[in-house]
Specification:
heterodimer, A: 107 residues, mainly beta, 11 strands, B: 120 residues, 7-stranded mixed β-sheet, 4-stranded antiparallel β-sheet, 0% helix
C-alpha cells in the first residue's frame, strides 16, 4: 500500500494567516491526490481533487499544488471557519490511503 | 441533491459481525459513473478506507481487512451494505459511507457517519 505522511501534525495560526500543509506519498501518484477538511463530529468534506482542482463551492482561499510524491494545501487567508483537521488521500491505486491529518487550531 | 445515510446497531459484541447499511437518496446507486465506499475512523484517530463496490457487484477491499469484510449492493433498495466479522475493540469507530467516481477518484459525497462500539 502507498503510505502517506503529512506535516505538520498540528499547527496554531491566527485569522488572516497564510497556512501551508504538506503531504508526501511513498511512491509517485501523479496528481491522484485529494484534500479533505473535517470538523469535530462531522464527516470529511472534499476540498480539492486531482491535486489542484477546487471542488465546487469551496472558497478560493484554498489551493492545492504538487504532483508525483510531494503536495501542498495552502489556505491563503485563514478564516474562523477554517479551524479544523485536514487530511490528504491518494487514489492512484487501491487500497486508498489517507494521511494522518493536520489539526489547525487557534493561536 | 444526493444524500447518503448510514444505519445499523451502535453496539456489537466482540467476535460477532458488524452490519451496516448505507441508503442513497436523491439519485440512483446504479449510476454507471460511481463506486460506493466505506471508510472508518476510530475515536481521535485518522481515516481508513475499508472497501468500495460498483452497482454491478464488483468490489475492492483493503487487504488489511479483506479476510473479514463483505460489501454488497441492493439496487432495488438503493442501498449498499458492510459486514465486518469477528470484531474486536479495535473495530470501534465512526463508520462512513461515501461516493467516488470510478477511475478511481476522490470521495465527493459522504454520509454523516455512525458510531459503532464493540463491547460486551
Amino acid at each position: 500500500a502507498i503510505r502517506i505522511t503529512q506535516s505538520p501534525s498540528s499547527l496554531s495560526a491566527s485569522t488572516g494567516d497564510r497556512v501551508t500543509i504538506t503531504c508526501r506519498a511513498s511512491q509517485g501518484i501523479s496528481s491522484y491526490l485529494a484534500w479533505y477538511q473535517q470538523k469535530p463530529g462531522k464527516a470529511p468534506k472534499l476540498l480539492i481533487y486531482a491535486a489542484s482542482t477546487l471542488q465546487s463551492g469551496v472558497p478560493s482561499r484554498f489551493s492545492g499544488s504538487g504532483s508525483g510524491t510531494d503536495f501542498t494545501l495552502t489556505i491563503s487567508c485563514l478564516q474562523s471557519e477554517d479551524f479544523a483537521t485536514y487530511y490528504c488521500q491518494q487514489y492512484y491505486s487501491y487500497p486508498f490511503t489517507f494521511g494522518p491529518g493536520t489539526k489547525v487550531d487557534i493561536k | 441533491q444526493l444524500q447518503l445515510q448510514e444505519s445499523g446497531p451502535g453496539l456489537v459484541k466482540p467476535s460477532e459481525t458488524l452490519s451496516l447499511t448505507c441508503t442513497v437518496s436523491g439519485g440512483s446507486i446504479s449510476s454507471s459513473s460511481y463506486y460506493w465506499g466505506w471508510i472508518r475512523q476510530p475515536p481521535g484517530k485518522g481515516l481508513e478506507w475499508i472497501g468500495s463496490i460498483y452497482y454491478s457487484g464488483s468490489t475492492y477491499y483493503n487487504p488489511s481487512l479483506k479476510s473479514r469484510v463483505t460489501i454488497s449492493v441492493d439496487t432495488s433498495k438503493n442501498q449498499f451494505s458492510l459486514k465486518l466479522s469477528s470484531v474486536t475493540a479495535a473495530d470501534t469507530a465512526v463508520y462512513y459511507c461515501a461516493r467516488h467516481e470510478g477511475g478511481p477518484d476522490a470521495f465527493d459525497i459522504w454520509g454523516q457517519g455512525t458510531m459503532v462500539t464493540v463491547s460486551s
